[in-house]
Amino acid sequence: MITVLLIGKGNVATHLYNAFLKAEAINILQISSRNLSKIPKADITIIAVSDDVIAEVSSKIKNNFVVHTSGSVRLNDLKNKYNKGVFYMLQTFSIDKEIDFSEIPFCLEAENEKDYNLLKTLALSIGQKVYSISSKQRKTIHVAAVFVNNFTNHLYKIGNDICKQNNVPFEILLPLIKETSLKIEQLDPKNAQTGPAIRKDQKTINNHLNLLNDDQQEIYKILTKSIQNGN
Amino acid sequence: MITVLLIGKGNVATHLYNAFLKAEAINILQISSRNLSKIPKADITIIAVSDDVIAEVSSKIKNNFVVHTSGSVRLNDLKNKYNKGVFYMLQTFSIDKEIDFSEIPFCLEAENEKDYNLLKTLALSIGQKVYSISSKQRKTIHVAAVFVNNFTNHLYKIGNDICKQNNVPFEILLPLIKETSLKIEQLDPKNAQTGPAIRKDQKTINNHLNLLNDDQQEIYKILTKSIQNGN
Fold it and tell me: Which InterPro entries match (chains A, B) (predicted)?
């Protein structure tokens, strides 16, 4: 039996709490980060709070092994006295959408093998995909995630705008969006590329630019150039 | 029974031919675009060839009703004598990947209601999603598709590059990519946006820029600016 103390009441903390409740080998306690006067003992203390208060919250914890759940905060930014670690789940969490933890990559980091194995056991009690990821690697994963999640979502938003401006329902693009995202499970994205940029079809590119506003044109040109440069 | 003549032997033509073969109400014939000396009669003649030869191929056809399958060619670029139309399927076709036609949006255009209804019956014989789309709308759908398909795929490629450079397996990003693409089936992409750009978290943005090469930085900055401007 692993005793886990979860600090935080936000999005990630709530999803984690519900998952640990169902795990038989886990004894889960949860407290708010605003109430740190009497902190219960636990084998693992998970701080699931905003990045900018992780250092402060961690400095008040005297438990043995303290981890945070952030993609962009270093292990050494934890200010607790004893052992430190990271329990980062690489996924986008929405409060009202159920999470399938078996699909989520757990990016784990610890200062020694014993702690790492404990984190691994914890992750496998609710999930299936475990990766050993250093603070440096995690930082770059976080940037890569901005490209494939936030920036990709912005391209969906531009597609939506273009549809709206021409009285076309956005749903018409959804099967293409889905296929594009599934294709790279089988193909390297570089080899999956199609379209006017990679074909250097300047006639179609010019036609497209004529249909776009200034902001859309700027993005269209830069991404076309980057595709053509193979960057 | 609708008799369909399919001209072309490429990717789209091959997938279409196999689908029509299974449709009971369709009598399908297929010929190569290089062999137009003796063209069989048909209720609908579908030209599924490269954009730049559609005009030439169509000029040689004397059948009643001729359509093309292109996203970026106008109805009036067909040069056959009689009725014209468009039978555009909004999807990315790979030769060795099976296509689920029930998922594909059929974007149809014709010069009169009778022809349109014939195209609709044809589309529904192999698919389920039918849209009436003008040449002008189809042009803009094609641009939107470049954003959500080609450009999105390029962001996946950059994510892949960043992972490779840091010895992280790209598969770690696949669940996030999948969730990002599925989220917008329920949420407007504008409302689905998260991350440092929309939060105006300049500290994280600066950290990210320090990890990127020049080309990646340029794309990061422009997309961040566009997200922040709400464009």
Answer: 6-PGluconate_DH-like_C_sf (IPR008927), DUF2520 (IPR018931), NAD(P)-bd_dom_sf (IPR036291), TM1727-like_C_sf (IPR037108)
